[in-house]
Amino acid sequence: MSRSAHPAGPRHADVLPEGHYAAPPADLNVLDPKVWARSVARGEDGVVAVAGLPVTRLAEEFGTPAYILDEADFRARARAWRTAFGPDADVFYAGKAFLSRAVVRWLAEEGLNLDVCSGGELATALSAGMPADRIAFHGNNKSAAEIERAVRAGVGRIVLDSFQEIVRVAHIAQSLGKRQRVQIRVTVGVEAHTHEFIATAHEDQKFGIPLAGGQAAEAVRRALRLDGIELIGIHSHIGSQIFDMSGFEVAAHRVVGLLKDIRDEHGVELPEIDLGGGLGIAYTSDDDPREPHEIAEALTEIVTRECRGAGLRTPRISVEPGRAIVGPTAFTLYEVGTVKPLDGLRTYVSVDGGMSDNIRTALYDAEYSVALVSRASDAEPMLVRVVGKHCESGDIVVKDAFLPADLAPGDLIAVPATGAYCRSMASNYNHALRPPVVAVEDGEARVIVRRETEEDLLRLDVG
Ligand code: LLP
Questions:
Q1: Where are the beta strands (DSSP E) in 83-241?
Q2: Distance, CA of 238 to CA of 186 (rounded, Å)
Q3: Closest C-alpha to ligand 1, atom 6
Q4: Which fold would CATH assign to domain 23-70+327-458?
Q5: Is 277's C-beta closer than 6 angstroms to any atom of ligand 1?
Q6: What's the rounded Cα separation, in Å, for the pair 26 and 43?
Q7: From the CB of 77, is ligand 1 less than 6 Å away?
Q8: How remote is the C-alpha of 158 from its chain's centroid?
Q9: pLDDT tens, 276-297?
Q10: Which Pfam families does this UniProt record tie to the protein (predicted)?
Q11: For 118-147, how does the pLDDT look when each residue is reduced to its tens digit (9 = 90+)?
């Protein structure tokens, strides 16, 4: 077994040769609309505002760090997905990206359904009034208590992830005198990435039942035999931050192949197919995501074509975008605490948050952008690494970016595209207090998830 250094150490400290970095943007004051929420703009006084509210005012009122979420943008993106797929398909927002009761209400109002993957997410959805039949319940190891709660609530579907779960859900539903609608999640042998898809080692992961070796077909056989469940479709989710539709194409081809086998063996045409989520967003100006209508057209075309080829009626399609809806709608607002130039290397800018509010850089080597938002500056660009305040050298928020050279403690900087998987993966590392989520709309700001307090921390510590 090899011994390697902790990746958060040497790897992040690597010094890249001169000329490696992209050239700084021509004007650091310009905000690229690709990565910023739609109502973000720099005012004439140089201060960035969201929906008309200057970030300086937001910082004063709500403190930093804080996630600032553009409600109109969230609603617009949710609506764009809904409209793109139309009445004959369903859009399930993936709550794992970010979930709160306000978000659940916006989704309900905009006509979206909701994918939850834990008892906690289910409780949030139900407590905010999402109709249970618009909820899909996911997870590779749902507890019996979670399943019972979901069945009792009447969730629209439970996505089955293993042979044991087929029996478990059927048994629980039957003992409650119910017949639960279910889908079976299959692994199609495609793992999609941003610019390529790899057809190896993909089945060596914990989710779903492989199509390979007839395992998914056997799962279907068993599910169709049980009274407590009604099998309504097949589910496939191929990955995250995907820009290339070819992975979906292969996945749809293989899922439709299974639907055809099911029809041939059982004389049943399953009415639904779920292609999961995973559609990419722009974290930096280099990313070029597709619009929901392009994705909807491509997916519908792929499934329709595959079904026609197989002599099947086209099933109802559903998708589960999380990041693509909420990701671009929020940014994290930080105050600069220290600015430390390391001669010949780069300048380390420490902010008042870090890996506790954005673990994605440390965990996935994710790329982010950053901008000075409390004022404009004509100073020269300087190469920076934005780091947090945690006791860990891998506590990096933005690996490489340019900020104006006159950056100073007390300035506010913001990292865009942090709406997805930042608050939802936030931690209390070093007993950090998780930041609030502030929703801004039409000149009004309100806290939808409040900042944690020391009392919150101490309440859990029962001595
Ligand atoms: N549906 C299923 C079954 C999923 O497993 C996921 C994500 C989604 C939908 C939503 O995927 P999205 O459209 O948001 O990419 N923490 C990672 C992402 C993990 C995604 C897990 N499943 C990150 O920060 O990139």
A1: 89-94, 113-116, 135-137, 157-160, 180-187, 191-192, 197-198, 209-210, 229-235
A2: 10
A3: 277
A4: Lyase, Ornithine Decarboxylase; Chain A, domain 1 (2.40.37)
A5: yes
A6: 19
A7: no
A8: 20
A9: 999 999 999 999 999 999 999 9
A10: Orn_Arg_deC_N, Orn_DAP_Arg_deC
A11: 999 999 999 999 999 999 999 999 999 999
Residue 207 CA, closest ligand 1 atom number: 5
Strand partners, 336: 351
State whether the beta carbon of 139 lies less than 6 angstroms from ligand 1: no
For the domain bounded by 138-321, which CATH number is listed? Answer: 3.20.20.10
To the query of whether residue 422 is one of the catalytic residues in this protein, the response is: no
pLDDT over 80 (residue 5): no
Nearest residue CA, atom 16 of ligand 1?
421
H or E segment and range at residue 332? strand 330-342
Binding-site positions for pyridoxal 5'-phosphate read 278, 320-323, 421
Mode of pairing for the β-strands spanning 381-387 and 396-404? antiparallel
Distance 321 CA to ligand 1 centre (A): 8
Residue 255, number of CB atoms within 10 A of its CB: 25
Give per-residue burial for 66-91: e unless 16+ CB within 10 Å, then b.
bbbbbbbbbbebbbbbbebbeeebbb
- Residue 240, ligand 1, Cβ within 6 A: yes
Report the predicted TM-score, pTM, of the whole model to 2 decimal places. Answer: 0.95
**How many whole angstroms from 277 Cα to the centroid of ligand 1?**
6
